[in-house]
Amino acid sequence: MKKKIIHSVEAPAAVGPYSQAIRKGRFVYTSGQIALDPATGKLVEGETAEETIVAQTRQVLTNLQAVLAAAGSGLHQVVKTTVFLTTMEDFARMNGVYAEFFGDDPPARSTVAVAALPLGARVEIETVAVLPGKGKGKGKKKKKKKK
Questions:
Q1: Helix (H), strand (E) at residue 142
Q2: pTM of the full structure
Q3: Which helix (H) or strand (E) holds 73?
Q4: In angstroms, rounded to a whole number, what is the distance separating the alpha carbons of residues 106 and 103?
């Protein structure tokens, strides 16, 4: 089973030697997204620190939506996220925006505080998603009908 590199022009281009996402089998693994505006390549900001974490979280999740869509998946198919924050003081505000995107059926999640993120971002999120549909995995044997 080959891996497929996923790229979306609706999300910021990779700023290093990595892919936006990889599709392998029925899974999509996204690289961490920071709050770059794909049109400008600049980090989104708010007027205040509180507005900045809200704006950045919203942009990160919008970027992830675009990457997942390019892979044939979506946020509703995400089974695991990892959230990186530069301060846990941003947790509640990030969590509020996160809940808007994931609703009543959120994925499993880890959230950690880190010393710094690329380009001065305050939040980065990576995901693991499945592809929609039942699909039959290779290697599964069909059950024989009893006579």
A1: none
A2: 0.89
A3: none
A4: 6
Other beta carbons within 10 Å of 25: 13
Q: Is the dihedral of CA 104, 96, 129, 41 positive or negative?
A: positive
CB atoms within 10 A of CB 23: 20
- Classify residue 74 as exposed, middle or buried by CB count within 10 Å of its CB (0-12, 13-18, 19+): middle
Tell me the mean pLDDT per 10 residues along the chain, length 147: 95 92 98 97 96 98 98 98 98 98 96 97 98 64 51
How many C-beta atoms surround the C-beta of residue 69 within 10 A? 15
Number of H helices, E strands in the chain: 2, 6
